[in-house]
Amino acid sequence: MKAWEKNIRTVDPYVPGEQPVLDDMIKLNTNENPYPPAPGVKEIIEQMSVKDIRLYPDANCSSLVNVLSAYYQLEKDQVFVGVGSDDVLATAFLTFFNSKKPILFPDITYAFYDVWAKLYHIPYERPALDENFRIRREDYYKENGGVVIANPNAPTSICEGLEFIEDILIHNQDVIVIVDEAYVDFGGVSARPLLRKYDNLLITQTFSKSRSMAGARIGYCMGNKRLIQAMNEVKYSINSYTMNQWALQIGVEAVKDDVYFKEGLVKIMRTRQTTANALRELGFDVMDSKTNFLFVTHKHLDCKQLFEYLRTKHIFVRHWDTERISNYLRVSIGTENEMKAFLDETRQFVQMSQQAVSVQ
Amino acid sequence: MKAWEKNIRTVDPYVPGEQPVLDDMIKLNTNENPYPPAPGVKEIIEQMSVKDIRLYPDANCSSLVNVLSAYYQLEKDQVFVGVGSDDVLATAFLTFFNSKKPILFPDITYAFYDVWAKLYHIPYERPALDENFRIRREDYYKENGGVVIANPNAPTSICEGLEFIEDILIHNQDVIVIVDEAYVDFGGVSARPLLRKYDNLLITQTFSKSRSMAGARIGYCMGNKRLIQAMNEVKYSINSYTMNQWALQIGVEAVKDDVYFKEGLVKIMRTRQTTANALRELGFDVMDSKTNFLFVTHKHLDCKQLFEYLRTKHIFVRHWDTERISNYLRVSIGTENEMKAFLDETRQFVQMSQQAVSVQ
User: Fold this and answer.
1) Interior/surface letters B192-209, b for 16+ CB within 10 angstroms, e for the rest
2) Cα angle vertex B311, ends B131, B214, to 5°?
3) Strand order in the sheet with B124-125
């Protein structure tokens, strides 16, 4: 080891999920939206001037902040935007979690929370979900340095109600409570109405799922202006110009077309229902999803084998070798046709497995 | 103060430079390039598919890393890309500067270095430039936690030679030495040839200046693969998908057109020379610039007043109320016409000032 190596920050290298690129693939592994973004987005791109490329973007991202604050009926200084909700959440962790007490988030939840905590040397504890993969509210009543709740939770797909989130807030008025609502648009309940009452609440959302714009890298959060100001001060101390001209322009355009947005949500939710029903008919346990994915398991099937079987058919879903969920799959909701292909192959796998059992 | 406020990270809020938007303005205050990016860039944008928006980008940024490593004849694992060189530098500070000893950088240099050091709680010292605004190499011979040298330096515009940078490296083999080459393409000397010899050297560059793409937010750095790997591990622990689809695609396209790139550099350097000559004729001291800006002062004129006078004419240059440089201006190199307008107004100001003196 060279001398200069000893001061390198050591992290558990986080390996991003597989992003296969095959012409015939059905990609149901990273919760992308199968439908394109609003038609106006394409038009805006074609109209972009080269001048927009040569000049620095607006560091305050005013155009996007304004359209989002108007959309959610908030003040302009209550919205912060970043390079995907990962950027927003990482900035929030760095800004708000500077206590010596541990921050709290569930054992099974978005895989990035403990990565940020480790990176920034934030102590943390992970109370276990109950046997039905629900968050136990009492676990969050103890003294802590902050709370992070994904609602709906991932990869469980379960959404808790407003009363649940308010109970967490009532018991945690001295720390920042982050509610990560990456998936809330697909039928979940947002904590937004609680923003007026709790000035320590920060809600994060993203354009990557419901707005079909994972490739644009746009996330945002909402909170009282003191929180947003503190995050902006940290952001301006890292990189003033995070959002490029393209992201700002197409982000604004996407928010404008609310009818297209909501039609898209309805399509996903309808496909989610038919897919869940079909899976249940095949004997799968399917969690009640308020997201654009299903979290499924099967009492008599090896779901990791199913994951690998589907891979051979160029259908990509998500599996983790993690304790408690190693026989579960997370399946993003694609188009009707994509889900039909997924179900056909899954049915095939179930039949093969049943034959194998009867032969034994 | 509420209880939750006491764990908020306190930073000196960095206020980004003014970005005026006026139809008739001449913007010489943020070192943007007056010429558009390569013609192919516009074509690529028009060809972008909506599919590129809906899917996550490549977390490894392989297309851009590949084109840059080929361009500089480096291995693929020797290049890291980020959201502008600020993102790259901030990631490097977080990754490499974890010593209890102070890192070293000049008192007059890029204003972000001490902001990052404060944000990440990195101790630092700032040896003073000499009376000619040159870096004193001996100041960097002492024990330290890392070294950061902007070369060419900003806002002085002065570039040190390869022998100077190698001397710094020879005296600092146990820490990471960052050479920030944001402006090097405009006639400076890159430390790139030293990469083979010094595995603790990290060189950062940007698309914002020489490649006319400040609005795209693309920066990169080059170093030995152990350094690049460590930065990628930190990056994947903050935000895996930092570069959006647009930035990746236009970045690749820009690097391809090397003739256009170099023609653009020649134009800027020629305009820089004629502008510097004209300013010297007006009695200004003009540093020998290897950047796309001039750093100028005048023995008998109040340069802050000139800055304010130019503002009233919608010509924006940069002035700092900072010790040692408060009678200096930084003037970005615009088009021939823009510099003519700047010189005409400056001449006007000089004449008015001389008349005022003779009246007294």
Assistant:
1) bebbeebbbbbbbbbbbb
2) 75
3) B79-82, B219-222, B201-206, B177-180, B146-150, B103-104, B124-125
Q: Of A117, A33, A200, give the one whose Cα is nearest residue B54.
A: A33
d(CA B108, CA B11): 20
Q: Does the distance separating the beta carbons of B45 and A48 come in below 8 Å?
A: yes
Is B210's pLDDT higher than 80? yes
Tell me which residue in A30, A33, A237 faces B115 most closely, judged by beta carbons. A237
pLDDT for the residue A49: 83
**Spatial distance between the Cα atoms of A188 and B230, rounded to a whole number of angstroms:** 38
> Which residue of chain A is at minimal alpha-carbon distance from B173?
A4
Distance CA B349, CA A325 (A): 73
Q: DSSP strand E in B84-162: where?
A: 103-104, 124-125, 146-150
Closest among B194, B250, B193 to B218, alpha carbons compared: B250
CA distance B351 to B357: 10
Quickly list DSSP for B166-226: HHHHHT--SS-EEEE-TTTTTT---SGGGGGT-TTEEEEEESSSTTS-GGG--EEEE--HH
Amino acid at B49: S
CA nearest to A118 within chain B? B237
Query: Looking at the predicted structure, is the pLDDT value of residue A10 above 90?
Result: no
Chain A from 286 to 315: CB within 8 A of any B CB: none
Q: What is the rounded distance in angstroms from the CA atom of residue A82 to the CA atom of residue B236? A: 16
Q: pLDDT tens, B334-356?
A: 999 999 999 999 999 999 998 88
Total CB pairs under 8 A between chain A and B:
261
Query: Which one, of A211, A135, A213, A207, lies nearest residue A177 by Cα?
Result: A135
What is d(CA B232, CA B223) in angstroms, rounded to the nearest whole number? 12
* Range B186-203 average pLDDT: 98
pTM: 0.96
**pLDDT at residue B99, as a whole number:** 95
Does residue B221 contact residue B88 with C-beta atoms inside 8 Å?
yes
Distance from CA of A57 to the nearest CA of B (A): 5
End-to-end CA distance of chain A: 55
Q: How remote is the C-alpha of A72 from its chain's centroid?
A: 19
Helices (DSSP H) in B100-161: which residue ranges?
Answer: 112-119
pLDDT tens for each residue of B89-140: 999 999 999 999 999 999 999 999 999 999 999 999 999 999 999 999 999 9
For chain A, percent of residues with pLDDT exceeding 90? 90
ipTM score for this prediction: 0.94
pLDDT at position B46 = 85
A85 CB neighbour count, 10 Å cutoff? 26
The per-residue pLDDT for range B34-57, each reduced to its tens digit, is 999 999 998 998 888 888 899 999
Q: Phi then psi for B293, rounded to 5 degrees?
A: -150, 165
Candidates A34, A83, A119; nearest CB to B242: A83
């974890």: which residue's tokens? B98
Q: Which of B215, B238, B241 is opposite residue A57, by nearest beta carbon?
A: B215
pLDDT band at A17, cuts 50/70/90?
Answer: low
Q: List all residues 6 or more positions away from A357 whose beta carbon is below 8 Å from its beta carbon.
A: A300
Q: In chain A, positions 134-163, which contact chain B (CB-CB < 8 Å)?
A: 145-146
Nearest to B251 by CA among B241, B261, B259: B261
Q: How many residues does chain B have?
A: 360
Average pLDDT, chain B: 95
Write b or e for each residue in B87-100: b if 16 or more Cβ atoms lie within 10 A of its Cβ, otherwise e. bbbbbbbbbbbbbe
